[in-house]
Amino acid sequence: MNSFSTVILLVLLLFGLQYGKIIVVNATCLDHITVDNDEQHSIHKRSIDHDFGILPDVYYQNIAPMQNGQPVQVKVSVIILNLKIGSISTQDFEVDIFYHQQWNDHRLQPPTNIEAMTKMKTHDSNIVQYRLTDRWKNRLWIPNVYFRNAVSGSISNILTPTYYFTVTNYTEVFMAVRLSLKLTCHMNFYKFPFDTQICYINLTSTSDDANTMLLSWHIFRIGSHVDESEFTVTQVDHESDCIKRYKFGSYSCLYGSIIFKRNIGKYVIKRLVPSFIIVVITFIGFWIPTNISPARTALPITALLALITQQIQSDLNVSYVYALQIWNIVCIIFVFANLLEFAIALYMIHCDQEQKSKKHDPPPSLSIWNDGKENVNNQQQQRQRSTLKRRMSQHFQTTTRHAQIDVYARYIFPLLFFLFILAFAFYVSTE
Fold first, then answer.
1. How many CB atoms lie within 10 A of CB 247?
2. Fewest beta carbons within 10 Å, which of 17, 196, 201, 314?
3. Mapping DSSP to helix (H, G, I), strand (E, B) and coil, where does residue 334 land?
């Protein structure tokens, strides 16, 4: 029993020693892992928080880098990537742009370890250029500029935030960011749908006045691939040397203008051509005899109802009259005048019938002398009428008064409508 118990004690002693070594080894490994993780975290933290010696010991982020009392010259670039015109009621437009700012900050220093930074290749070996992340926006002085006519906006971050800085030759700072903006655009629809709209992109300094910072255009353009179905961009222009003066100071500003011309193909096919055809069809009624009342009546009334329906289905909801409404109203007037001409022709038929009935039943004469005198006058009047009718028949090949009205209308109505088309085209084509 003593020997057996001794063997058990030896086995337990050996197992305890081996288990202790495992515990010690595992603890040592965990210590190494903890040390390695702490070291990696500290290196990563230094790579983010360390300024690589770019910023001096004393650097004021809210003070502009002026030299010799001269304001900082900031060059601004706007490149339009996408464009969309909003609805007529909201009167705005949306753009996606690359927004660039470039200035000189003489307070920046060469980095102490430029190899640890993101260097950029250049064509000139004498140019040193490196890139900084968007975290530097909270460290560097940045021109405080805002879009005056912006309703809303955001920085595009579909995959990663498109916001970065580039430093050239240690002091030239270039900032690039992609923005999505909704901007107001006050539109004028007096010549709709032949209108041309001008929309602006207005930039103004916020906190730095004109004595501290001046803005100037470097690039303002629209991408060649940008397309808008409703409008065509005809011109892009910009204006520099703009100063906004207020009671509390003067601030530098910039204007960029985009001129749009509306595509009229849809409106020509849907509105102008149908109304033109309706009016021309009513002119055919002048060639239909007046005694065929159903055809002469149905043609202008049907056309009048069609034009009124087209007028009610308006494309715009504005408080003033615009070009398309003028066109529709004049077309309605021509059709209504056609119906009025037919009413006058019917009245003339009634008058002619009354005159014929009076000729067949002449009033009794008072004396032979009067009868002879009246016969002479009637003969003279008949000669004059026959001469006039002969002349009229030479031109219009008709002798009845209601038929003469139709003959005149066949030429007067189309001529007036043609003159109206010329005047309307002149009106919508002038600026």
1. 4
2. 17
3. helix
Q: Pick the more confident residue, 23 or 406.
A: 406
Interior/surface letters 291-314, b for 16+ CB within 10 angstroms, e for the rest: eeeeebeebbeebbebbeebbeee
Does residue 182 contact residue 152 with C-beta atoms inside 8 Å?
yes
- pLDDT by residue (tens digit) across 3-34? 555 555 555 555 554 444 433 334 343 344 33
**What span, in angstroms and rounded, lies between the C-alpha atoms of 292 and 354?**
20
- Which amino acid is present at 94? E
Taking Cα atoms as reference points, which of 151, 150, 154 lies closest to residue 163? 154
Is 218 within 8 Å of 100 (Cβ atoms)? Answer: yes
Q: Which residues, at least 6 apart from 228, have a Cβ–Cβ distance to it below 8 Å?
A: 83, 84, 85, 260
Q: Residue 365 — pLDDT band, cuts 50, 70, 90?
A: very low
The CA-based angle 404-409-413, given to 5 degrees, is 170
Is a pLDDT exceeding 90 seen at residue 350?
A: no
Tens of pLDDT, residue by residue over 277-330, are 999 999 998 888 887 878 888 889 999 999 999 888 877 888 899 999 999 999
CA 113 to mean position of chain CA atoms:
49
Amino acid at 414: P
* Pair 230, 263: CB distance under 8 Å: yes
Domains and CATH numbers, the chain: 72-263 (2.70.170.10), 268-429 (1.20.58.390)
CB 317 within 8 A of CB 348: no
How far apart are the C-alpha atoms of 338 and 341, rounded to whole Å?
5
What is the spatial distance between Cα 327 and Cα 324, in angstroms, rounded to a whole number?
5
pLDDT for residue 184 is more than 80:
yes
**Residue 101's closest CA among 42, 155, 172, 18?**
172
H helix runs in 361-400, sequence order: 368-396
Residue 171 contacts residue 108 (beta carbons within 8 Å): yes
User: Would you say 246 and 209 are in contact if contact means Cβ atoms under 8 Å apart?
Assistant: no
The pTM for the full model equals 0.70
CA 288, 294, 297 angle in degrees (round to 5)? 75
- What type of residue is 304? L
How many degrees, rounded to 5, is the angle at CA 75 between CA 70 and CA 80?
Answer: 160
Rounded distance, CA 165 to CA 72, Å? 18
